[in-house]
Amino acid sequence: MKKYIFVAGLLTFISTGCHEGFLTVVPETSLSSATFFKTEADFVQAVNAAYVPLRTIYNDRTWKLAEMHSDNTHYARNRLFGAVDNTQNLADFCIPVSNGLTTNDNVLQQYRQDYVIIARTNEILTRIDDVEFDATAKANLKGQALFLRAFAYYELARYFGKAPLHLEPVTTREGASKPLSNTAELYAQIESDLKAAIPLLPTKSVQQPGRVTSGAAMMLLADLYMFQKKWQDAEPLLQNIVNSNQYSLMGDYDLAFSETNSNKNNAESIFEVQYMEGSAGLNGNLIYQFVPTPITAEELAPITGTSNPQAISGENNNIPTPDIIEAYEPGDLRKDISIGYVTLSQSLREDKVYPYIKKFARKHAVHGNTGQNFPVYRYAETLLFLAEALNEQGRGADALPFLNQVRNRAGLPNITETSTEALREIIFRERRVELAFENKRWFDLVRTGRVREIIEPFGQRVKADPVKYYYPDPATTPPSNAFTVLDDYYPLPAVEADLSSNF
Question: SS3 for 341?
Fold first, then answer.
């Protein structure tokens, strides 16, 4: 591990503002956790800070590591610009690997942001029981910290399969370097944290909007069980969410996603990362990271709706593949809500028409400054998970009502198939289109053991017809090592290995 974990605990309070009067008590150079955690307000501020890395994770990393690293989206080339290896290699399944380590910066930054969350929540959980304040408020804050720590470790477990397990603040350089815990050990800790969090957290109707709820903790725990194929353990958690009457499908699929200043944390939202348009530094710029380029200001304006659109050059990220476009059934209302098209006059391709992720292209005021929230868990996924858990237990007929709720909203007819194998494929496909571009696809491939089955032929299609997959012309082809690194887990970041003897 690294000195970074120790420092992150201290930076929590510098980066989010200090408690009033704090700096009048001790010199700024003596800022420490020991002198900060004195009141309920201090713990509220610390928990707020533990959410902060999620904005960076979902704006900058997750879509690269979990969606573009799949067959749902790809990386289009502009030979006048030159490749951006850290991103391109994720889409091409050829990130550099040596002795289980990689120099890919997206992997490194994801890893570090998760450990910022862990460092901050460890500080909270270590100290909160020693400070007297309202018991209900304390339980709520403690539950949120437990959820966030579990969430960060779940990301590490799914991305890397192993990681150092820190449950207390790191106070020495030696303490920062811990052995790698395996997947089973990480899963056990995640499960423990979430089981502790669920009874501490309020329901959505009581909780402050945007904060973790008991339903979110149940959903994360159910996700953990689904990943492990523990269908019987996941089922009651998912049923509890359904029976809680705290969530429902929005009547229109388009309304499931927030606008930049409205419709946030709506009835379908179980947990979403919060952004705010404006100058406070809480905004995102997600659509600008993967709108097709090079795009002129005139071509961009209808997509973003801003008063000051500006041209964007470079290369394209996260472009919907022909494969995901073809995955929608005829009449599926989600297709036109999820995917739009734009003609790029400056593109080097003969066919200058590109698809883009329309579901996250919400109108906003200022170029490069968006405020729509990002959905981590929606009620639609609860219904699909429940259908899957029931079907995998041989109860296909019981699964159909939950599956068909999702399909009916999309304008599609009921499924009547009850064969386990056939229904498994139907649910797998339904997850792909319902949750398209929400960073679920890679994890679905891994947890179902279908990475090679699906990515190998996908890679063959890209190589056979690169123009179809957004290469500018037949002369521009994928690199020779494309689609050669098809492991379930990412290698650990090489920079971290330089700081730990345990990697």
Answer: strand
